[in-house]
Amino acid sequence: MTAPNRPPLLLVGSGNRHYRAYLFAALRPHFRLWLIDSADSTWPHDYVEGVTVADTLDADALIAVARQVTASFPARGVLTFDESLVYPVARVAEELGLPGNPPETVQTCRDKARSRAVLDAAGVPQPISRTVASAEEAVAAAEQIGYPVVVKARGLAGSLGVLRVDDPTAVSDAYATASGAVRPGIPRYEEDVLVEEFLTGPEISIDAVISQGVCTPLVIARKRTGFAPFFEETGHTVDADDPLFDDAALLGQLDLVHKGIGLTEGATHTEFKLTSRGPRLVEINARIGGDFIPRLGMLSSDAPPPSDSSIRPPAARWSTPSYTTTGSAPRSAKPSAPSLRGRISGCPHTPTRRDPDTGTSSRSARMPVR
Asked: Which helix (H) or strand (E) segment is 79 a member of?
């Protein structure tokens, strides 16, 4: 059912249809959509009122185009699903006076070293982390931290450029892999690689919305990883009644992370390791989760995907017949007995490396329900 008086929304970037079409379909009944994209792909036309082509990685160019579009399409919010576009979109929101997070806060989320430093100052428990600019520095950092360690690219996402290293002989190769991993729109730094303490325990992610500083977890995904020494995500299990929704230590850290980094509006994807010492932050992203994590959340609870609260003006709500809530609603607002409520797992059909920015993949994916 299409809601009356749907507010207009700017959507920046489309990506691969297989990873994005369900998100467009979830938004369309509740918003009038105008897409600004780097190319005029045909598949989004079924969901949007118009498409404008622009260099979406150039914040100044994107702002100029957004001003032109909103002259006749008075958007009340702006949204992107892509990691490489979160900073340009934050700039658009700021320049056009739309709800959102400060661009510098969003950029902090993209910079793993900066986010570690900011959250250390806020008292968030995290693994020991060192930034390095050479293989020699990486070896020294690993010796100081103690093996095994994790070597990762400073600005990438989607587990790209992340490796486990168990001894000194593998550090140089790991550094070369991490420093050589590049994607369009990804910032580079003089110290471009992190060497971190290896955390043991299950890994989870939390997709949440934050509105006026109140963080509400909506989807908790328990990860499966493989292809060692990499940490490729091979599957996720989502349970609408996961006991972690009531874990005070985890929820306390989730709140502390958002407050410490300065996020007040929007959708986030936060990853933790559940260690014997308690939850430890892996990273936080100023966007919804990748793969099909939001889709799994929808299947497990009959709820819409976590949606950027910056696109929802005060009167706007997103809903299904069994679920209506705002971004700051308590978990008790979740449906009590929807038709598909339960434990859902998703996994790649075949091993694949995907691009977290565009959603593109060389192979298809499926989501078995069990």
From this structure: strand 78-80
